[in-house]
Each structure stands twice: as structure tokens, then as C-alpha cells.
Amino acid sequence: MSRQEQTGGDKNYITFLKETLLGENLYSLIFYLVVFYILLTYAVFPMTYSLTSVSDISAVISPSMVHQEPQINATFYGWLYDHGFNMSQVARWPFQGGLSVGSLVVAFKTPADDIKVGDIIIYRADVNGEELDVIHRVINETVIDGSYYFTTKGDANPYPLSFEYNIPYSAVVGKVDTVIPYLGYPRYIAYLIVHDL
């Protein structure tokens, strides 16, 4: 390769880098998404956890909390009514519209006695052999010898799943306080890619 050919190749590479950094080609979108994800994961989230009372920021990756008509009438309202819940109290529960897939949820560590039936919590559970953060609604709380245990249910699930019974407070990451639609989609897409391989 002659010196002139090598210099031409270097110029093309520099032009490509310049266009990428300035957002003038398709690769710049991918580049900036990766940079954004790395900054969020390794800078913004850790700083948020250390400087505030936020205990977790998670993405909704399952449709188990999605309120979709007409199914939600049976899986949520009907189930609660059939199990003796006071529907006027249910109407005052937070996040009445459920949680959409791809939403970002912010949770705060909350004392056990401040978690009430109807609250949505994030907790760690073994789901089919995989440790996952589960985002579901509390449907029962029990105190045994001063220790708190919770039972949860996804609003769109027809019944509580086997791992949702008697969740110890020590497994609770936090109580959901804020939901931001769509910002969790990058995490949702990454989850789909990893689990489809």
C-alpha cells in the first residue's frame, strides 16, 4: 500500500468519525444511544442512588401490570371484588391505570409499616430459576413476630403466581412512587434481545 493510499484511508476514517460525532450519519444514532445508556447505567443511576433516597429505577418489561380492556375487568376489578376487597378503597389505590410495558418506574425504600395493600412495590424473586425484579401490587400484608410479609399480584394476571406469596420485607427493593412512560423501552428491548438468544 502506498503512502498516498494510506493517507486517503485515514482521511476517510477521520471523515467518518467526524460525521458520526456530529450526527451526520446513521451510525451516530447507535453511537449516542450506547453512550447515553452507559452514562445512565454507570454515572446517573449510581449518583442518584447515593445522593437521594431513590432505591431503584426499573423498567416495566412484563405486561402483568397492563390494564387492557376487557380482560382487566376480570383479572383486576373482578378478582378484587370476588376476594372481598372494598371497591371504594380500591378506587383510591395509586396507579389506577396500571403500568405500561416500557415505562420507567422510580421506587423509594420505605419502612415496612408504610407499605399498604394497593401499593405497587419492586421486590427480588426467583422466577423460574432466574433472579428478577418484580413490579406488582400488594394485595395482602402479614406481620409475624414483628416481621412483615407481603403477597402481590400483577393487575393483569388472573391470580397471584407461586413466587408472590409471603415475600419478606428484606426482598423488597422499594415502593413505586413515580412512573415515566416510554423511558424504559431501551431496557425492555435489551431484555427481549437477551432472552430470545
Query: Could you give the count of β-strands?
Result: 7
* Largest sheet entry: 7 strands, antiparallel
Radius of gyration: 23 Å
Count of individual domains: 2
What's the pLDDT, averaged over the residues? Answer: 87
Uncertain spans? none
Distance separating the two termini: 41 Å
CATH superfamily (homologous) name of the largest domain: Umud Fragment, subunit A
Order of helices and strands: HHEHHEEEEEEH
Helix and strand layout, with pairings?
Blueprint: H1 3-21, H2 26-51, E1 54-59, H3 71-82, H4 87-90, E2 104-108, E3 120-127, E4 130-144, E5 147-153, E6 167-168, E7 172-180, H5 185-196
Antiparallel strand pairs: 1-2, 2-7, 3-4, 3-7, 4-5, 5-6
How would you describe this protein?
This protein has helices at residues 3-21, 26-51, 71-82, 87-90, 185-196, and strands at residues 54-59, 104-108, 120-127, 130-144, 147-153, 167-168, 172-180. Strand 4 and strand 5 form a beta hairpin. It folds into 2 domains: 1-52, no CATH class; 53-196, Umud Fragment, subunit A. It is of the alpha+beta class and 197 residues long. A 7-stranded antiparallel sheet has the order 1-2-7-3-4-5-6. It is elongated and about 75 Å long.
